[in-house]
Inverse folding.
C-alpha cells in the first residue's frame, strides 16, 4: 500500500520509479500494453497466476483491493458489526457490467473502465481526495512553522479539482467505504469488471480453497471471517469466482478443515457440465481480454466532433483518438506534472473520454525541459518521448489576436509572451520604439507558456489544440527568428 501511495503522492522521480514497477503488475494498464512493449508481459503473468492460484491479483497486487483490506481491518477493530455470512453472488449485476465494459470499449468508449477499473479508481481517490487533504495539512503545518522561523518544510501546490470531478469520485468512494465496512470485498465481486473477469478465469485454477467435509464441524468461523462472503457453510463449498485468496479462513480454522489444495480431477458425473462451462467461460474470457485492447481499432470513431476546438492533450499522446482510446483516467500524470498544467476534465472529450485529463494553461504551461507524463503513464495513452522528440512535438498552434493585445491597442511595450516562448515562435519586431508581437506557427509546439503569461482578458494569445500531433520546426539556437518584410511595409523597418 505504501508503494502505491508513493507512486501517487511522491515527487516526480519517485512517481516515475514506482509507476514503472507497479503498473507492470496491474491488470488493466498491462492489458492496454498488450499490443507491444514489455509491460504487456505483466498481463500474461497475472493471467498465469490466476490460472495457477486463483485471484491472487485481487489479494495483494490490486491497490484498490489492498485499500479495501485496510478499511476492513480498521472497521473490525473500531465498529461493532454483525458477523459475515455467505452472500449470494449478484450475477445479474456483475456479469452485465463486464459485458457492458467490453462492448463500450469495442465501440470506442472507456466510460466503464474509467469509472470502475480498480487501478484508475484508486488513482482518482489518491489524486482528488487524499492528496488535497495531505497538501492542506502540510501547508497548515508550514504556515505554523514559519511563524516560529522554522523552514524545514515547504508549501505544496495542488492541481485544481472541479466539482464535476470531485463529486463522482467522492460518491464512488463512499459506496466503496460502505461496502467494505459492511460487506467486505463486495465491490470486487459486484461492480469491478476486473474482479469479475478474473473470477471467470479462477474457475479453472489449479489450486483452490476447499472444505474437507469429514473434518469440518460447521463451527462457522471460516464463514464469519471470509471478507468476500464466498464460503457457503451450509453446503460446505467455496465460490472460487469470488474468493480473493486472502487465506483468512485457513488461519482461523482450528480443525484444518479449510484447505488450499491442488485440484487434479473432478467427479465423473460433473464432466459434461464442466466441459460446457469451460467452453462458455473460455470464449467469454479470452474474447473479453482481446477485445478490451482494441477499442478504436475495430470501430474508428471521433471522440470530439470535427470543426470544434479540441482539448489539448500532452506530448506523446499522438492524437485525440489515441489518447481517449487508451487513457483510463488514473490521473497519475496529473499527480506527477510539476507545473500542474494537466488537470482532470469531465466531458471535454465526450463520454468516450470521461474524466480524462487535458492541458489547462490558466494554471500553468508545459515545461520545455519536462517529459515526465510520458514516463509515468501506465497504459501507453501518453507515449514516453525523449526530450529531443518532445521539444519538436506540436500539440497545438499559437493564435494571436492583435485587437486584444495591449501593445497594439495602446502602443505600449509588453512582450511577456515573446520573452517566455522557448522556441521563438512568438517574437517581437521593433517599430517606432515599440516592440510589436509577431508569431510563426511553424516553430510553435503548443506549450501554452505565452497564453499563461498573457495579462489580457480575454487572452490576446492562446493555443488551439491539434487533433493529431504534428512536428514543429527546430528552433533557432541563437537569435529570435526574423520574418520577411510585408510588401506594404517600409523597407527601412528595423528588423
Amino acid at each position: 500500500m505504501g508503494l502505491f501511495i508513493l507512486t501517487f503522492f511522491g515527487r516526480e522521480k519517485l512517481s516515475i520509479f514506482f509507476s514503472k514497477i507497479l503498473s507492470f503488475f496491474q491488470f488493466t494498464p498491462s492489458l492496454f500494453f498488450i499490443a507491444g512493449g514489455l509491460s504487456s508481459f505483466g498481463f500474461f503473468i497475472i493471467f498465469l497466476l490466476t490460472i495457477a492460484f486463483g485471484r491472487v491479483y485481487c489479494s495483494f497486487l490490486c491497490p484498490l483491493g489492498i485499500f479495501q483490506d485496510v478499511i476492513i481491518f480498521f472497521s473490525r477493530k473500531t465498529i461493532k458489526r454483525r458477523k459475515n455470512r455467505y452472500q449470494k453472488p449478484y450475477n445479474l449485476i456483475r456479469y452485465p457490467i463486464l459485458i457492458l465494459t467490453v462492448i463500450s470499449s469495442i465501440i470506442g468508449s472507456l466510460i466503464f473502465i474509467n469509472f470502475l477499473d480498480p487501478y484508475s479508481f484508486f488513482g482518482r481517490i489518491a489524486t482528488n481526495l487524499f492528496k488535497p487533504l495531505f497538501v492542506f495539512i502540510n501547508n497548515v503545518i508550514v504556515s505554523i512553522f514559519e511563524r516560529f522561523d522554522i523552514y524545514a518544510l515547504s508549501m505544496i501546490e495542488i492541481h485544481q479539482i472541479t466539482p464535476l470531478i470531485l463529486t463522482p469520485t467522492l460518491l464512488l468512494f463512499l459506496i466503496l467505504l460502505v461496502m467494505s465496512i459492511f460487506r467486505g470485498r463486495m465491490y470486487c465481486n459486484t461492480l469491478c469488471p476486473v474482479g469479475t473477469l478474473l473470477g471467470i478465469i479462477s474457475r479453472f485454477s489449479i489450486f483452490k480453497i476447499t472444505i474437507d467435509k469429514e473434518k469440518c464441524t460447521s463451527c462457522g468461523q471460516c464463514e464469519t471471517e471470509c471478507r468476500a462472503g464466498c464460503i457457503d457453510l451450509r453446503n460446505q463449498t467455496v465460490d472460487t469466482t469470488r474468493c480473493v485468496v486472502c487465506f483468512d479462513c485457513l488461519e482461523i480454522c482450528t480443525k484444518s478443515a479449510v484447505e488450499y489444495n491442488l485440484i487434479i480431477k473432478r467427479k465423473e458425473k460433473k464432466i459434461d457440465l464442466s466441459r460446457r462451462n469451460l467452453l462458455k467461460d473460455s470464449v467469454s474470457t479470452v474474447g473479453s481480454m482481446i477485445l478490451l485492447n482494441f477499442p478504436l481499432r475495430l470501430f474508428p470513431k471521433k471522440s470530439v466532433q470535427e470543426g470544434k476546438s479540441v482539448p489539448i492533450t500532452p506530448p506523446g499522446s499522438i492524437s485525440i483518438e489515441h489518447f481517449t482510446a487508451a487513457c483510463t483516467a488514473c490521473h497519475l500524470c496529473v499527480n506527477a506534472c510539476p507545473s500542474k498544467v494537466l488537470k482532470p476534465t469531465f466531458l471535454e472529450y465526450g463520454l468516450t473520454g470521461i474524466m480524462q485529463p487535458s492541458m489547462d494553461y490558466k494554471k500553468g504551461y508545459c515545461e520545455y525541459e519536462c517529459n515526465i507524463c510520458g514516463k509515468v503513464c501506465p497504459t501507453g495513452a501518453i507515449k514516453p518521448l525523449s526530450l529531443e522528440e518532445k521539444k519538436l512535438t506540436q500539440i497545438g498552434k499559437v493564435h494571436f489576436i492583435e485587437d486584444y493585445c495591449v501593445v497594439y491597442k495602446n502602443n505600449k511595450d509588453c512582450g511577456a509572451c515573446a520573452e517566455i516562448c522557448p522556441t521563438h515562435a512568438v517574437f517581437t519586431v521593433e517599430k517606432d520604439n515599440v516592440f510589436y508581437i509577431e508569431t510563426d506557427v511553424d516553430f510553435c509546439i503548443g506549450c501554452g507558456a505565452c497564453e499563461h503569461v498573457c495579462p489580457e482578458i480575454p487572452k490576446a494569445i492562446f493555443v488551439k489544440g491539434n487533433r493529431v500531433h504534428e512536428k514543429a520546426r527546430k528552433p533557432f539556437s541563437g537569435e529570435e527568428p526574423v520574418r520577411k518584410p510585408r510588401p506594404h511595409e517600409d523597407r527601412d523597418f528595423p528588423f
Summary: DSSP finds 22 helices and ten strands in the chain. The beta strands are 207-211, 231-232, 237-238, 258-262, 342-344, 357-359, 393-400, 426-431, 434-439, 461-471. Residues 266-275, 293-301, 480-495 have pLDDT under 50 and may be disordered. The radius of gyration is 28 Å.
